[in-house]
Description:
Layout: E1 4-7, H1 10-24, E2 33-34, H2 46-55, E3 59-64, H3 86-96, E4 100-105, E5 130-131, H4 137-151, H5 154-157, H6 166-184, H7 192-197, E6 206-207, E7 213-217, H8 222-227, H9 234-245, E8 254-257, H10 269-286, E9 290-293, H11 296-305, H12 315-318, E10 323-327, E11 330-334, H13 341-345, H14 349-358
Parallel strand pairs: 1-2, 1-3, 3-4, 4-5, 7-8, 7-9, 9-11
Antiparallel strand pairs: 6-8, 10-11
Helix pairs in contact: 2-3, 6-10
This protein binds uracil.
Amino acid sequence: xxxxxxxxxxxxxxxxxxxxxxxxxxxxxxxxxxxxxxxxxxxxxxxxxxxxxxxxxxxxxxxxxxxxxxxxxxxxxxxxxxxxxxxxxxxxxxxxxxxxxxxxxxxxxxxxxxxxxxxxxxxxxxxxxxxxxxxxxxxxxxxxxxxxxxxxxxxxxxxxxxxxxxxxxxxxxxxxxxxxxxxxxxxxxxxxxxxxxxxxxxxxxxxxxxxxxxxxxxxxxxxxxxxxxxxxxxxxxxxxxxxxxxxxxxxxxxxxxxxxxxxxxxxxxxxxxxxxxxxxxxxxxxxxxxxxxxxxxxxxxxxxxxxxxxxxxxxxxxxxxxxxxxxxxxxxxxxxxxxxxxxxxxxxxxxxxxxxxxxxxxxx
Length: 364
Ligand code: URA
């Protein structure tokens, strides 16, 4: 899913859009530019698909040509007034979602007045427009690219690996160490007696303390509890393989779990509640731009934590989606994934999981 959505009306500005797209490719990666929602499978709700595509972007460029607001259908009805007009749905979603919306005027078009726009687009008239002229096309696109670049959230622009200075890295490392000690001493945990009886270790997680991405699994298995490290068994191998497909090493990200002690069964609400403050503290320390919950339990917890509208959704509907949430330190993307163990039970899941990991490439 791209981060820059180019919205346009074919009858009005198609000639400009192709040229603009080619020029923008010199400034942005192909996968950061999203132009046509042209692969909506039959039977899908196309409005929801368009809305999701826009929601996953940071900036929407609305290309407005001379006839943008006047184009009509065969019956002579203005397209912009119709509920199913792609242009209207996309711009209205971007405005509603508070995205950066940049109207780009081409072909000497004028910015439409509020009274020419349907109610859900009225706010577009207040967005400052950018004029793209035929004569100075190249220079204008250079300027536009700079405007877009400046609008993209800094956090997303950075890499999935180390983001800041060594001082921050070591501070976060020390804070995580303190959290590890607190976890080891969490004697009121419902899983503490079992840990002690079996000489197990608590498993806070491991990876880059300054990672841009955190993966949250379900709970450590027996081997993990013996070693005090998450994802060291077969699920860990799958996780590493998936990370490799997007050119990340395990050491580049941070890997943890919803429960931080071994549990043989599905997490119970009581256990989740007990470990939640530890997981929350871990997220607050690392301050990732991306949180990828692995499996339905971790997903349920993360979506509820951020009180996202999707919080009652199923993993079969939400896996691979880029959902935005806000933390005190800035924006975070939540990308739910199936648990790597699902591949062990059903090899066809590997293709799906790989496809979902591909979505993380925009953050790498
Ligand atoms: N290992 C972990 O650490 N977590 C899981 O969810 C599964 C295996």
